[in-house]
Design goal:
The complex is a heterodimer. By secondary structure, chain A is α+β, with helices and mostly antiparallel strands. In chain A, 50% of the residues lie in helices and 16% in strands. By secondary structure, chain B is an alpha+beta fold. In chain B, helix 3 runs parallel beside helix 7 and helix 9 runs antiparallel to helix 11. Classes of the chains: A alpha+beta, B alpha+beta.
Chain lengths: 376, 394
């Protein structure tokens, strides 16, 4: 047993922390939240130069050949800093291309992702607002050498800056819902793609993306035809754990900053952190966040090793979501009035917790998923 | 990171599993596990003692001790595995006051003579300990204890009262704290003693709310004890006590016990119909069971993390306090929720043909209350996290 990060991972963590301290700032978070694309070119270029976009890409495609656990280190630091960029979207799609792409697709796309030229976006969710195969109604109909896609994708992150969508569509309507799902790489500039921004609690650049008679060459199918859903299931597990890493990173900011504020802020002549009630809030916060972090690492390790972990992923995501929501709420309470303002950073975390809890599985539906595993 | 056990640890785990699986079959009727149930009846105590003797022969009562006192010099990870497997199979046989509380203090602080006198006997399961720490007016604030030890020649003479002395009625030995110097600050005038229980010590039962005899009051009346029985130095008892916290503190045992309970409860929900359908199909019940499965699994990983930190030589005051309050609060909540799910059947006591699980949850939703108090209340655990983990001002 060894529950420490590797030396390389520690170094990556330090680089990321330094970058977020020196180059990134919460002022930038506020600026980009209100910015229409949320993409700052110079920041994107710098993270490409740092090799972060190449972590998940094998060396033969100009990548670093890193492991999923290495990405966890990055996601954690990004969550801590409320980092805004199409990094999460791009990396998650990259994982699908690495896992299921043809040699040609990998050669064409992965080096351009690695060097920062290409932004990817996952066009999965729909108005059904669920993450299972039955929720996919978007149709792709075969027509000679191409497919024609029609449907509405909803809650699509970073579509506004994407060069390419990983679009999940139904190529067959009869049979069980998970049969007949095919994945497509769709050029974002294709005629018939219409993007409308959505504004959410976290200002996290979600969109409605309508595909109206969008033509896609057959060579743009990613993975097996009609058997694409297992790739999405894998992706959803990775995305859920990546989201957990972001959440525990953000939660770390909350416990650290609430604790130091409680030591400084005096009322009735004493620091508020000397009162039992605040001490116990913070002790519970520290405990539950610590537990969430260790379980996130455990689930990430299971995924990294290819060990089946449907139950553990659901547990990790449900727990981290609840913990992040609970302690961002109490974090505002520790800061008092100032914590409720736009100018204070606490609200950035409070808002993100409410969004992250619902992405890639919400706590209630995840508990049903756990129940299916432990009861049937 | 690597969460795998080594092949040697896996082999040891298999040996533990094989042993405890067999021992579980020998449990007396109505046995449902639980740390303190060994004290409740002659049959339970006999079961505990018979397992203890077998464990002693295998050398499993002192896995982490140095070899020269009969130990095997295993790490906290091996101790964690042992504790997890034993608790899962609900097998007794470990005198926690002996091997987990007094032995580490003796190892850390006692003279070589005392070590030679006591450690082999603990390893051989020859003696049964109880703990004389708490007093009616010294609970969480243990250092304010008032039991007096007055020097008299080669002896000390002890007068005072102890309380919450679990298992004193079955024990033959007691370790206790007494005040040897009332003139100095409270932490600096306490001495740590070990003794057999004999004349001068009176034990009075203090029944738990479910009428079972687990804990006691213990009275010292002019009890005479040799100076040789002091562990460490006179007036250093508080530090001897603190040194003794160096045992496996992950609380994996309480997690493993409840995990087993949950597994059996799930089977019950599959077999039991309510309103014409199995309980296991009821969405609210499913939600509750999933929540406990989740919390147990995250608590289990936290326990492994605590043991891992300890195996690297860390003292983990905050981490182990988190494990303690989290797992004990979880146990209380679990017991209460199982009673709720069973509805009116949930409160039936053992003995009725209608009672489920031999009335286990009727019992557990009372008995488990002790776990959030004994060994440091939930509030004390949170104080330790706040003061030692987060360095908040006292």
């Amino acid at each position: 047993m060894n529950l420490d990060f590797t030396e390389e991972q520690e170094a990556l963590k330090k680089t990321a922390r330094d970058f977020m301290t020196k180059t990134w700032s919460s002022a930038l978070v506020r600026e980009l939240e209100e910015h229409p694309t949320g993409l700052k070119e110079d920041i994107w270029r710098q993270i490409a130069e740092l090799g972060w976009l190449a972590v998940a890409i094998p060396e033969e495609y100009d990548g670093v050949g890193g492991r999923f656990m290495d990405l966890i280190v990055l996601f954690e630091e990004m969550g801590r800093a409320c980092f805004i960029a199409p990094f999460f979207s791009t990396v998650i799609c990259t994982l699908a291309i690495v896992a299921a792409g043809s040699e040609e697709q990998k050669k064409e796309i992965l080096p351009r992702v690695a060097n920062g030229e290409m932004v990817l976006s996952l066009a999965l969710a729909e108005p059904s607002a669920r993450y299972d195969a039955a929720g996919i109604a978007t149709r792709a109909a075969a027509n000679k050498d191409e497919y024609v896609i029609n449907g509405t994708k909803l809650f699509i992150h970073d579509a506004q800056v994407a060069h390419c969508f990983l679009c999940v569509a139904r190529t067959r309507t009869e049979g069980p819902p998970e049969d007949g799902i095919t994945l497509f790489l769709v050029d974002a500039k294709s005629p018939g793609v219409k993007i409308t921004p959505l504004h959410t609690i976290a200002d996290d650049k979600q969109n409605e993306v309508i595909f109206e008679n969008v033509k896609v060459a057959k060579g743009q199918v990613l993975g097996p035809i009609e058997k694409g859903f297992p790739v999405i299931e894998m992706l959803l597990e990775q995305a859920a754990i990546a989201k957990c890493a972001e959440m525990v990173g953000g939660a770390d900011w909350v416990i650290e900053n609430c604790t130091s504020y409680a030591k400084e802020r005096a009322q009735y002549g004493k620091p508020i952190g000397s009162y039992g009630i605040i001490q116990h809030y913070l002790a519970e916060m520290w405990t539950e966040i610590g537990i969430a972090k260790r379980f996130t690492y455990y689930a990430a390790w299971l995924l990294d090793q290819g060990i089946p972990c449907r139950k553990e992923v659901a547990m990790a995501k449900a727990w981290a979501s609840e913990v992040y929501k609970r302690w961002t709420r109490m974090g505002v309470q520790v800061f008092g009035g100032i914590g409720t303002t736009r100018e204070h950073d606490m609200g950035l975390y409070y808002r993100r917790a409410r969004q992250a809890a619902l992405l890639f599985g919400d706590p209630d539906s995840l508990r049903e998923k756990i129940a299916q595993e432990i009861i049937l | 990171m690597d969460f795998r056990l080594t092949p040697e640890q896996e082999a040891l785990k298999s040996a533990f599993e094989e042993f405890f699986k067999e021992e579980e079959k020998r449990a007396p009727e109505g046995w449902s596990g639980g740390m303190f149930s060994i004290f409740e009846s002659e049959e339970n105590w006999a079961y505990h003692r018979s397992v203890a003797e077998k464990l002693a022969k295998k050398g499993w009562l002192c896995l982490p001790w140095p070899k020269k006192y009969g130990g095997q010099e295993h790490s906290y990870i091996e101790q964690l595995i042992f504790n997890e497997v034993r608790a899962y199979y609900r097998v007794p046989g470990v005198d926690m006051w002996g091997s987990q509380i007094v032995a580490p203090s003796i190892l850390e602080c006692a003279s070589e003579e005392l070590k030679q006198e006591w450690l082999p006997r603990i390893a051989r399961a020859e003696i049964n300990w109880c703990q004389g720490w708490s007093e009616p007016n010294a609970g969480s604030d243990l250092a304010s204890l008032t039991t007096r030890a007055v020097e008299d020649g080669d002896d000390f003479v002890i007068n005072g009262q102890k309380i919450w002395t679990t298992g004193a009625h079955r024990a033959d030995h007691i370790f206790f704290l007494a005040r040897t110097d009332p003139t100095v600050p409270k932490h600096k005038g306490i001495t740590y003693f070990v003794s057999e229980i004999r004349e001068g010590i009176t034990i009075r039962p203090l029944l738990f709310m479910h009428s079972k005899h687990e804990y006691n009051e213990v009275f010292f009346d002019d009890f005479r004890i040799s100076k040789k029985n002091v562990v460490g130095q006179v007036n250093q008892g508080w530090y001897v006590t603190m040194a003794g916290i160096n045992f496996e503190r992950s609380m994996i045992g309480s997690v493993a016990e409840v995990k087993r309970d949950l597994e059996e409860f799930i089977e019950f929900c599959k077999e039991t119909k309510r309103n014409g359908q199995p309980l296991a199909k009821d969405p609210l019940t499913r939600h509750k069971l999933a929540e406990f499965a989740l919390e147990l699994e995250v608590a289990r990983q936290w326990a492994y993390y605590v043991a891992w930190l300890q195996s690297k030589g860390n003292l983990v005051p905050a981490e182990s306090s988190a494990a303690k309050y989290f797992s004990s609060e979880l146990t209380v909540r679990f017991a209460n929720t199982m009673v709720e799910i069973m509805g009116l059947y949930g409160t039936l006591k053992a003995g009725s043909k209608w009672a489920k699980f031999h009335g286990k949850y009727e019992d557990m939703c009372q008995a488990s209350l002790g776990t959030t108090i004994a060994g440091g209340t939930t509030e004390t655990m949170k104080n330790i996290i706040a003061w030692m983990g987060l360095k908040l001002p006292r």
